[in-house]
Specification:
Number of strands: 2
Radius of gyration: 19 Å
Structural class: mainly alpha
Strand content: under 5%
Strand order of the largest sheet: 1-2
Oligomer: single chain
C-alpha cells in the first residue's frame, strides 16, 4: 500500500485511541496479548531508554539540523528502502505497484541525486510501503500474539521474525561495516525524529503500553489489508460466551 495511506492509517488509529486515552484500560490479557506480563516489562525498559536517549537525540537532531537537510536524509533513507518494497510488491503479486516502484527507484536514484530529492513524487508517482510481514499477512499467515521486542518496540510473532528477511533485502546490509552502522544510526535517529509529533498524544494516555499496542495492531491490520479493515465490535473481556455459539 502507499506510504501516504499507511501513515493515514496510523494517525487515524492514534486519533481514535486518543479519545479513550483518559479512560483506564482493562489490564487482563486479551487473546491478542497473552504475553502481556513479559511485554510490559520490556516496554518499560524500552520506554526508559527512549526517554533518556532516543527522544533527546531526536530533539537535538531537529534543533541542530535545517529542515531541508532533514528532508534530504529522509528521502535518501526512503529510497534505500525501495528494493525491499519492490521485492514484497512482487511476492504479493502487486505487479502494477512493482512497476511504479521500479520507476520511483530509478528516477530518485538518478534525477534525485541518489535519493536526496524525491523527484518521483514530483512526477506523480506514489510511494508504496511494503515489508515481509505484510507479505506473510497477504499469504494468510496470522499475526499471532502481540510482542514487544527489546530496543525495537511493538511487533508480533509474524512481523518480528519477518524483519530478518527485511534486513537481508536492504542494500545497507551489503555495505562495509562502517557504512552499514553509520546508516543504521542515521536511520534510527530519523525514524525517532519523524515520531516526535506523536509524543504529546502518547504522553496523555492513561496506559501508554495499551495505547501503543492498539495503535500498532490497528496500523498493521490496516497495512496488511491495504486499508480494507472490516468493522468489528471491540472485544469485551467481561462478556460471557455468545449464547448463539453452539
Amino acid at each position: 500500500m502507499s506510504k501516504t495511506a499507511a501513515r493515514a492509517g496510523l494517525v487515524l488509529g492514534l486519533v481514535v485511541l486518543a479519545g479513550c486515552a483518559a479512560n483506564p484500560p482493562r489490564l487482563t490479557p486479551s487473546r491478542d496479548d497473552p504475553l502481556q506480563r513479559m511485554n510490559r516489562g520490556i516496554y518499560r525498559f524500552n520506554d526508559a531508554l527512549d526517554r533518556s536517549v532516543a527522544r533527546p537525540v531526536a530533539k537535538a537532531y531537529r534543533a541542530a539540523t535545517p529542515q531541508f537537510v532533514r528532508t534530504g536524509i529522509g528521502n535518501f533513507i526512503a529510497n534505500l528502502e525501495m528494493p525491499r518494497t519492490l521485492l514484497n510488491d512482487l511476492l504479493q503479486g502487486k505487479f502494477r505497484a512493482a512497476q511504479a516502484d521500479t520507476g520511483r527507484l530509478l528516477i530518485n536514484t538518478s534525477l534525485g541525486m541518489g535519493g536526496l530529492f524525491d523527484a518521483a513524487t514530483w512526477a506523480g508517482i506514489d510511494h508504496n510501503d511494503e515489508d515481509f510481514g505484510q507479505t506473510l499477512g497477504k499469504w494468510g499467515v496470522p499475526p499471532g500474539p502481540y510482542l514487544v521486542i527489546p530496543f525495537l518496540g511493538p511487533s508480533d510473532l509474524r512481523d518480528g521474525p519477518a524483519r530478518i528477511v527485511d534486513l537481508y533485502s536492504h542494500p545497507a546490509r551489503y555495505a562495509n561495516h562502517e557504512a552499514a552502522w553509520s546508516y543504521a544510526a542515521v536511520s534510527l535517529i530519523n525514524t525517532r525524529y519523524e515520531l516526535l509529533p506523536l509524543d504529546s498524544t502518547l504522553d496523555k494516555a492513561f496506559d501508554k503500553y495499551a495505547f501503543m499496542r492498539e495503535a500498532y495492531l490497528q496500523n498493521r491490520a490496516y497495512k496488511v489489508s491495504d486499508g480494507n479493515v472490516p468493522d468489528q465490535p471491540p472485544e469485551d473481556p467481561d462478556a460471557g460466551p455468545d449464547p448463539s455459539t453452539p
